Every structure is written in C-alpha cells, then in structure tokens.
Amino acid sequence: MSSPAVSAAPPGTTDDESRHRQLTVLAGWRRFVDEEPAPPELLPDRQWRRLSDAGRLAYDEDRLNHHSRLLVVATPVIRKVITEGRRLSYLNRNADSGRCGLILSGPARTGKTTALTQLGKTLEVIHRQRHPRSGTDIPVLYITVPPAATAKMIAVEFARFLGLPVIRRANLTDIIESVCGVCTDTRTGLVAVDEIHNVSLATRPGAEASDMLKYFSERIPATYLSTPASMSSATDCCPAPAASRSPGASA
C-alpha cells in the first residue's frame, strides 16, 4: 500500500507557494489549517521615513498581502454549518453503514466553499487537539470535482490530495484500494466534495462517477459534505444520504 506524500511549504520561498496554497493537495490543506495570519507591525512615522525605497516597497507589500487575505467572518450561516457538521461527525463516528452526509447548496458566489473549508478546518483542529501525537493523520480530505467527471477522475482526485502517485495507465481498482487504505489508516473523518454538480447523471460516465463517490462513502468511514450549485443537482449526486441541508452562506 502506498503512503501519502507529506511535505511542508518551505518558509520564505515563493517558487512552490502557488502549489502549496492549493487546498486539493495535502500540503496546501495543512498550510491552510495551520495558517494564523497576524497583522503586520505598523511602523511609527519617523521610522517609516528612514526606510529605503526597497524597504518601503517590502513594508507596503507585507501590509497589502495581509489585507488581501480577506479573513473569514463567522457569520450565522457559517456557524450553523460548523455546528451541523460537528453533530453529524459524532453521529457517524460509530456507524458501520448508512452514514449521513451534509449538502450545502446555494447560488454561485454565496460562500459555499468558504463554509465547507471552515468546517473542515474546525474539525481538523479538533482532531489535532484530541490526538496531539497523531501528526501523520489526515482527518479531512478535500477535493474539487472536475468538469465532466468520470469515475477514474474522481478516484485520481482523492489520490492526488493524499499525495499517492498515479501513473497514466494506473488500474482503477489499485487506485481505489490505495485511497481507502490510506484514509482508513490515517483516520479520515470528513470528506469534502466541492463542485459536485460537475457530475452529470445524464451521461454514463457521470453516473459511474456518482457511483464511485457512493462507493467511497461505504469504504471510507467518514462524514461526507458536498456543495452542489442547487438542490435539484444534488439529489442523486450526494455520496451519502443528506441528514440536513443548509442554504449557501453570504460571501
């Protein structure tokens, strides 16, 4: 069985920064969870005037970078999503089958992905506090469903997040077994599936992709959270029965 490739973003470097900011890879997700932005130091006017041109540029860049992060505000909807997600994770913890999932629906640009990632971040922080010596655990798995997704594309997205090597001619069964084995060994408790409306049930490949998600929900003992564009596109695509459905959050 393959092991997940775990790497940390090198401090002070920018070459790999874009890759490590991707939430759909383990290194990027962990960086997102670990990140606690602190406001930059505001220099007194006299000290600021003593800065060189390069120093002022670096000072301004640091402040602009901080403000561009757009820190998340804990709105009532985000708090509701986190509360319901935590409740479901407790209900599913000892379930052998028939685990309930959570559907977060709403129009585009209303904050569904923000609420989803905040729930994942919260659950991972709780897991780390509960198991302080479990540095190799992967309590949250986050994927984005690609357009016109097929069953193999879904499996590859799971493997890509975990850092499992996937060759072009890889056997689908081997990918599935590797993903399920790593998730079980690393105590994955939440699987977040974003853009699930990209699974089209009107086509055979789309139907097979939906079946793949449902198969993963049976093999990986976790709570599943999905974000379709609308409830009408979520009814058959959700990998687990929806116990509760929350409206999209305001951005």
Summarize the structure.
This protein is an alpha/beta fold and 251 residues long. It has helices spanning 17-20, 26-34, 45-49, 53-67, 76-92, 112-130, 151-162, 172-185, 204-219, and strands spanning 101-105, 140-144, 190-194, 223-227, 242-247.
Structural notes for this entry:
With 251 residues, the chain is α/β, with parallel strands linked by helices. Helices cover 44% and strands 10% of the residues. It contains nine helices and five strands. α7 (151-162) packs across α8 (172-185). The longest helix has 19 residues, at 112-130. It starts with 16 loop residues before the first helix and ends with a strand.
User: What is the helix tally?
Assistant: 9
Distance between the termini: 41 Å
Mean pLDDT: 83
Structural class given helices, strands, pairing? alpha/beta
- Read across the widest sheet, the strand sequence of neighbours is 2-3-4-1-5
Q: Tell me about the biggest sheet?
A: 5 strands, parallel
What would you report as the Rg, rounded to the nearest angstrom?
20 Å
Give the CA-based shape: elongated
Helix content: 40-55%
Record field, number of beta strands = 5
Taken as a percent bin, the fraction of beta residues is 5-15%
Low-confidence stretches: 5-15, 247-251
| Secondary-structure element order, N to C | HHHHHEHEHHEHEE
